[in-house]
Amino acid sequence: MPAYFVAEVEVTNPAGYEPYRALAGASIAQYGGRFIARGGKAELVEGSPEPQRVVIIEFADAAAARRWYNSPEYQAALPIRQANSRARALIVEGAS
Q1: Distance, CA of 53 to CA of 62 (rounded, Å)
Q2: Helices 62-70 and 14-30 sit at what angle, rounded to 10 degrees?
Q3: pLDDT tens per residue, the chain (96 residues)?
Q4: Residue 52 phi/psi, 5° resolution?
Q5: Is 3-93 in CATH node 3.30.365.10?
Q6: Which tens digits make up the pLDDT trace of 52-71?
Q7: Which residue, among 11, 2, 16, has the nearest Cα to 62 in the 3D structure?
Q8: How many CA atoms lie within 13 A of 44 on its CB side?
Q9: How far apart are alpha carbons 23 and 8 in whole angstroms?
Q10: What is this structure's pTM?
Q11: CB 28 within 8 A of CB 68
């Protein structure tokens, strides 16, 4: 069943974050992921705080999402994101 990498990201340093976008995008494609949502307008309808940037990436299954997240390619990009943003990220299995 498909699985989704979901991240809420608050970019704190846009210039420093920029290299992450290219590196992460290339690694996602390499590991079979595809963007479902990528920083478009998000409307909070319940709870808080207001999300700054939401990213949803679909993978074939949770194992594929973990392979991508733990891959050398993404692990090279991850410190750039962590140094230039605050985020919550999770892997969610799709409905069966």
Answers
A1: 22
A2: 130
A3: 999 999 999 999 999 999 999 999 999 999 999 999 998 999 999 998 888 899 999 999 999 999 999 999 999 999 999 999 999 999 999 987
A4: -85, -50
A5: no
A6: 899 999 999 999 999 999 99
A7: 2
A8: 9
A9: 18
A10: 0.93
A11: yes
